[in-house]
């Protein structure tokens, strides 16, 4: 099997312990321990076994434990039309009721929901009541722009509280958000607007990153110009205050719309069917354009709330910080919806981890007394390189739990995180999941003995396995396909506009099972080790990019006839993009052209997609049917055997 990462080292014989055990007080006080005891179980393992026998009872209990419903469900799971599974059918709900409304009128009214700090040092705090008022106002603004239930609204903003407010307001009125990460650029934004057919787009004049302005509005203008007949209204948040162009009739300042009469009138939260779509989020897949994954109103919130409570163990006094971007699924589930559903206080920081110096994150963590920190291996590796003296300058003693997501974490980075940041006292929750799964699937909880680099075992109610292509259990040191054997509440429901692709992509490789697209290994203790993607997805700094998107960006340059992109290992980013390019007649390979192409991809897709190198080649290895064999390019680049090349064109 072709994989992206090296198999994790076998550490049982090394100088390090096999297991890192969580401190006793953490286990004793964990939310999950309380629930296990309530159910009459001695520990989390016994609880897990019960949830696998009774998944519907388990998820049903979670749905009442963590959430309110306008109307109860008839069935927890309807599997009559698999793989189009339905959850909590017959119920009425809205996640905004659970995340906002009930807190704003209840005991959490004056509790801080969001503490925001910008790179430039501005700070802002929203209590639950204040957040509710902002969400209400923006919901009215959206309605004034013609947004109705079922409409798709594209949101393209930097990491500001208004991004969270916009998302919540969209869902409040029963529309769907399609958030495009603020680090993406023109073509990435355009293709997502085009596919979602969003009449309304929410953006800002700009955002801050590394003391530079990200030209959100300028990029929006270019993207919308390519989709002129679709977007009728662009709502612009004033953030940086620098000069931008506003197009008469199409563009409106957020604050001007907010000043319209009636915007503070109460806007009812729409009562949704559980299977109504809640949002879509584009992600890169094996082939072609990014696909809009659709999540539904009922099940998504149940699994997000449950996993956040049982894995990150949120308690009323916690200060939780997920350093991801709301523009990715991590931010959707564990910045926007999860913490607010649980009535938590969370920190949102806009900007780069190392601005103005590599102590910035630790400064933020110390300043707000962060107790739970959730980030990605790439950020840890990046900060690690500046040395321990930076974190050691700050008081990180409030930290209780740490988290990691996005790609496998190298044991070396894990140990640094555990020792230097967590002072050997904070268990690390290495959470494996995907845009598709909506919430954690394979993850420790605070009672789990840990192995650095392993996401440990499936979450309660989740049945997973590692299988061969033939559907047999992969044994010993062999890699296999990571599969999920039973439906789960926060699963994607379909690919927007393409249900056939949903079935083909996820449910046909091993019929009856969901194939995740990852290679994995299960060790002798039943611990899972995710090795990497087996498809054409490249993970750059944990961000998911498709070879196809990078290639079409390259081919849109007049010099390029054909391109093939592969991901190769990179010390900080995990993987970096290395395209192979065939030039059109009349163009000559040069360093200047390579630089121009790198910039071009950065401009079309976004800085994260900028290739590391450009390799000019006269031809590409192809199958006889004309498919580029990226696998062969990769093997050649890494000096590895080329594998089965029997289909390679002579
Ligand atoms: C892919 C999904 C889920 C939020 C962020 C990524 C990789 C994710 C881990 C982890 C090893 C991981 C997988 C997966 N991945 N978390 N803890 N250990 N690999 O979501 O962009 O949809 O990417 O990220 O390869 O398939 P995504």
Automatic annotation (TrEMBL):
<dbReference type="GO" id="GO:0019427">
    <property type="term" value="P:acetyl-CoA biosynthetic process from acetate"/>
</dbReference>
<dbReference type="GO" id="GO:0005524">
    <property type="term" value="F:ATP binding"/>
</dbReference>
<dbReference type="InterPro" id="IPR025110">
    <property type="entry name" value="AMP-bd_C"/>
</dbReference>
<keyword id="KW-0007">Acetylation</keyword>
<protein>
    <recommendedName>
        <fullName>Acetate--CoA ligase</fullName>
        <ecNumber>6.2.1.1</ecNumber>
    </recommendedName>
</protein>
<dbReference type="InterPro" id="IPR011904">
    <property type="entry name" value="Ac_CoA_lig"/>
</dbReference>
<dbReference type="InterPro" id="IPR020845">
    <property type="entry name" value="AMP-binding_CS"/>
</dbReference>
<feature type="domain" description="Acetyl-coenzyme A synthetase N-terminal">
    <location>
        <begin position="45"/>
        <end position="99"/>
    </location>
</feature>
<dbReference type="InterPro" id="IPR045851">
    <property type="entry name" value="AMP-bd_C_sf"/>
</dbReference>
<keyword id="KW-0436">Ligase</keyword>
<dbReference type="Pfam" id="PF00501">
    <property type="entry name" value="AMP-binding"/>
</dbReference>
<dbReference type="Pfam" id="PF13193">
    <property type="entry name" value="AMP-binding_C"/>
</dbReference>
<dbReference type="InterPro" id="IPR000873">
    <property type="entry name" value="AMP-dep_synth/lig_dom"/>
</dbReference>
<feature type="domain" description="AMP-binding enzyme C-terminal">
    <location>
        <begin position="549"/>
        <end position="627"/>
    </location>
</feature>
<dbReference type="GO" id="GO:0005829">
    <property type="term" value="C:cytosol"/>
</dbReference>
<comment type="similarity">
    <text>Belongs to the ATP-dependent AMP-binding enzyme family.</text>
</comment>
<keyword id="KW-0547">Nucleotide-binding</keyword>
<dbReference type="GO" id="GO:0016208">
    <property type="term" value="F:AMP binding"/>
</dbReference>
<dbReference type="Pfam" id="PF16177">
    <property type="entry name" value="ACAS_N"/>
</dbReference>
<dbReference type="InterPro" id="IPR042099">
    <property type="entry name" value="ANL_N_sf"/>
</dbReference>
<dbReference type="GO" id="GO:0003987">
    <property type="term" value="F:acetate-CoA ligase activity"/>
</dbReference>
<dbReference type="InterPro" id="IPR032387">
    <property type="entry name" value="ACAS_N"/>
</dbReference>
<feature type="domain" description="AMP-dependent synthetase/ligase">
    <location>
        <begin position="106"/>
        <end position="488"/>
    </location>
</feature>
<keyword id="KW-0067">ATP-binding</keyword>
């Amino acid at each position: 099997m072709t994989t992206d990462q090296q198999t994790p080292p076998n550490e049982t014989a090394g100088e390090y312990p096999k297991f890192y055990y969580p401190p006793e007080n953490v286990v004793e006080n964990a939310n999950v321990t309380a629930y296990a005891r309530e159910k009459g179980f001695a520990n989390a393992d016994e609880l897990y076994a019960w949830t696998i026998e009774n998944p519907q009872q388990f998820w049903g209990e979670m749905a009442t434990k963590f959430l309110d419903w306008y109307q109860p469900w008839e069935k927890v799971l309807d599997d009559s039309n698999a793989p189009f599974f339905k959850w909590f059918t017959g119920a009425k709900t809205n996640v905004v009721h659970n995340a906002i409304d009930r807190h704003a009128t209840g005991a959490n009214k004056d509790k801080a929901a969001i503490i925001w700090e910008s790179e430039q040092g501005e700070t802002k705090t929203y209590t639950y009541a204040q957040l509710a008022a902002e969400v209400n106002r923006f919901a009215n603004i959206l309605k004034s722009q013609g947004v109705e239930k079922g409409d798709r609204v594209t949101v393209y903003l930097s990491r500001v509280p208004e991004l969270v407010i916009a998302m919540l307001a969209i869902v409040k009125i029963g529309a769907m958000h399609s958030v495009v990460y603020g680090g993406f650029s023109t073509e990435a934004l355009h293709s997502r607007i085009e596919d979602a057919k969003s009449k309304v787009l929410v953006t800002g004049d700009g955002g801050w990153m590394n003391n530079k302005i990200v030209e959100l509005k300028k990029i929006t203008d270019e993207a919308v110009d390519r989709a002129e007949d679709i977007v009728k209204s662009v709502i612009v948040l004033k953030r940086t205050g620098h000069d931008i162009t506003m197009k008469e009739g199409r563009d409106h300042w957020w604050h001007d719309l907010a000043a319209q009469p009636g915007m503070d009138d109460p806007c009812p939260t729409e009562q949704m069917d559980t299977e109504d779509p809640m949002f879509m989020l584009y992600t890169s897949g094996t082939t072609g354009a990014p696909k809009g994954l659709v999540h539904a109103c009922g099940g998504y919130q149940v699994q997000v709330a449950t996993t956040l409570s049982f894995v990150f163990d949120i308690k009323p006094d916690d200060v939780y910080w997920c350093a991801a971007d709301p523009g990715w699924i991590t931010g959707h589930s564990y910045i926007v919806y999860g913490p607010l559903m649980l009535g938590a206080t969370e920190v949102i920081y806009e900007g780069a981890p190392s601005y103005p110096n590599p102590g910035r994150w630790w400064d933020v963590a110390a300043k707000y007394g962060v107790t739970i920190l959730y980030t990605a291996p790439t950020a840890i590796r990046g900060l690690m390189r500046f040395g321990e003296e930076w974190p050691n300058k700050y008081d990180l003693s409030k930290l209780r739990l740490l988290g990691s997501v996005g790609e496998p974490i190298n044991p070396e980075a894990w140990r640094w995180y555990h020792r230097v940041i967590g002072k050997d006292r904070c268990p690390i929750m290495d959470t494996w999941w995907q845009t598709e799964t909506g919430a954690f699937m394979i993850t420790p909880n605070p009672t789990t003995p840990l192995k650095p680099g392993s996401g440990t075992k499936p979450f309660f109610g989740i049945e997973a396995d590692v299988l061969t292509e033939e559907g047999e259990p992969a044994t010993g040191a062999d890699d296999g396909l990571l599969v999920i054997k039973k439906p789960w509440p926060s699963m994607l429901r379909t690919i927007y506009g393409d249900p056939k692709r949903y079935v083909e992509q996820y449910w046909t490789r091993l019929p009856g099972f969901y194939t995740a697209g990852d290679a994995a290994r299960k060790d002798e203790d039943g611990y899972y080790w995710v090795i990497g993607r087996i498809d054409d997805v490249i993970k750059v700094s944990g961000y998911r990019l498709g070879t196809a998107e990078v290639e079409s960006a390259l081919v849109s340059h007049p010099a390029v006839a054909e391109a093939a992109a592969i991901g190769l290992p990179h010390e900080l980013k995990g993987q970096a993009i290395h395209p192979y390019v065939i030039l059109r007649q009349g163009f000559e390979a040069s360093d200047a052209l390579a630089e121009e192409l790198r910039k071009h991809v950065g401009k079309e897709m976004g800085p994260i997609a900028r290739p590391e190198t450009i390799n000019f080649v006269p031809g590409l290895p192809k199958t006889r049917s004309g498919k580029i064999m990226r696998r062969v390019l990769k093997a050649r680049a890494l000096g590895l055997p080329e594998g089965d090349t029997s289909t390679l064109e002579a």
